[in-house]
Amino acid sequence: MEGERHLGALLQNMTPELQDGVFVFCCLSPAEAPPAALTPLMLFREREGITLIVRREEAEQAGLSYQFAARLITLSVHSALDAVGFLAAVTTALAAAGISVNAVSAFHHDHLFVPEVQGEQALSVLREMSHSLK
């Protein structure tokens, strides 16, 4: 099944879900292998290093330093990878509320990492945004 491309439908049907737990961003050197005990939610390789997004308790147990303790909000609508404007609209609404966001697009859904202390606030902003369009 192909993902949704129509911006209005994406915004109306995004159904944001706040996931359990706190996630953190870790960086390893380009030559370093991630600890075998980790189950990263995301791993991304750049020239400067390997970014891992993991649960905070996993990073701490592995002795990894980390930044940006975040709550994860999944936008449950199946968005197409080439949908135009969806994340721009969502991140603009969060920015207007003073909430920073790190967005990750996966095959089926978009995922938003927001500051840990603003997780519930971000969820409210997104739900209100979606409901105002229905």
Chain-wise SSE layout:
Layout: H1 7-12, E1 16-18, E2 23-28, E3 42-45, E4 50-55, H2 56-61, E5 67-75, H3 86-96, E6 102-105, E7 110-115, H4 119-132
Average residue pLDDT: 94
Q: Mind summarizing the main beta sheet? A: 7 strands, antiparallel
Order of helices and strands: HEEEEHEHEEH
Helix percent band = 25-40%
Strand content: 25-35%
Give me the Rg, rounded: 16 Å
- Termini, distance in Å? 24 Å
Parts with pLDDT < 50 across at least 5 consecutive residues: none
Quantity of strands, as a count: 7
Shape: globular
Oligomer category: single chain
The number of helical runs is 4
Structural class: alpha+beta
Describe this structure in words.
The protein is of the alpha+beta class. It contains four helices and seven strands. Strands 1, 2, 3, 4, 5, 6 and 7 form a seven-stranded antiparallel β-sheet that branches. The longest helix is centred in the C-terminal third of the chain and has 14 residues, at 119-132. It starts with 6 loop residues before the first helix and ends with a helix.
